[in-house]
Description:
The protein is of the alpha/beta class. It has a single domain, classed as Aldolase class I (TIM Barrel, Alpha-Beta Barrel). The protein is built from 11 helices and 12 strands. It has helices at residues 32-41, 52-57, 63-72, 86-94, 104-108, 110-120, 149-158, 180-189, 205-214, 223-227, 232-239; strands at residues 2-10, 13-18, 21-29, 46-51, 76-80, 99-102, 125-132, 135-138, 143-148, 163-168, 195-199, 218-221. The longest helix is centred in the middle third of the chain and has 11 residues, at 110-120. The chain is globular, with a radius of gyration of 16 Å.
Amino acid sequence: xxxxxxxxxxxxxxxxxxxxxxxxxxxxxxxxxxxxxxxxxxxxxxxxxxxxxxxxxxxxxxxxxxxxxxxxxxxxxxxxxxxxxxxxxxxxxxxxxxxxxxxxxxxxxxxxxxxxxxxxxxxxxxxxxxxxxxxxxxxxxxxxxxxxxxxxxxxxxxxxxxxxxxxxxxxxxxxxxxxxxxxxxxxxxxxxxxxxxxxxxxxxxxxxxxxxxxxxxxxxxxxxxxxxxxxxxxxxxxxxxx
Length: 242
């Protein structure tokens, strides 16, 4: 299982939110590049980055930050937030981003996801499914739909999506543990050729152990690293693959 340390960007700063609420912004690091280099030094090979401004505005906002990390570290960058077109996907990939996350468009424009997988390949596209009480949320978590998260995952798998990030918004930034029940239901409910990345609520090494035991492909760790409840190097060593 791979460990993906996270950096969320808002107004050019490294921040974390509580349950996706933009009113709870907390700056967690002073320099995004030094933070990314610290992750690399701890043994990470991937980094998960989110353009929170982009997610809210529906367009890329902080391009230079992500391309800096891709160019100036050896980390593979997984990036989401405000990616709504094939042109934006192509631009990010050409700038060295390894994998892009499609979130809101998976629900609102599934044809775009299908075309993205066809054009760029399943290794370059990951669908982010964020949910409240099992129902998919969109537009930077500001809107909630009536679509079940497993149903959306299956629909996306049918058009060739291989990678999924699942976030229980009620857990995100809370350090209260991952939602094991919903993650297991997703794992059991979609094709075993799909790879699931857990996001939201990671607190201690116990969460890493739970995700690994479920057979998940990866786990995203954010606030737990910044608050010191999880040692990144220990998590990577425990995961056994990165």
